[in-house]
Amino acid sequence: MPSRPQHAEAAPTDLSGIDAQDLALYREKFRRRLPDSLAELRGPADGVVEPPATVVWSGLRAFDLGNERQRMSLYRTVLAEGMREDLCSLLDRDTLLQLWPTLRRLVSTTVCGVWEEAFPELRALAGISAARPPARRRAHRGASAA
After folding, report:
1. Cβ atoms of 79 and 64 closer than 8 Å
2. pLDDT tens digit string along 44-71?
């Protein structure tokens, strides 16, 4: 028996070309999904949203847009997994603009870059400070506890 694998090939020493090509293909995957304009994003701005299983296949399946964390989670997931039709039917333009300063930090750098390159109005929001998470409510202490 041979001591080496029969199909061993020399590993490429320069991976930069492969990495750059893979990154370009990955970026193109997201670019092809983009709407032509943010005006096409006509999803709901309130209520409960149940995305199709092609977008959200595990975990939370219904998102209450009145809940800040669920709204952010829905937008993050749709940006990463949704196709053009999903983006247009599940995302709302005004909500996306409102969430973008925080949301851009939660999505991959590739998704963020593709969206900001395509839509200058998102790029303009890049310098705005991200919103702080909502403060946790403190338990009310009655007058006798003071």
Report:
1. no
2. 999 999 999 999 988 889 999 999 999 9
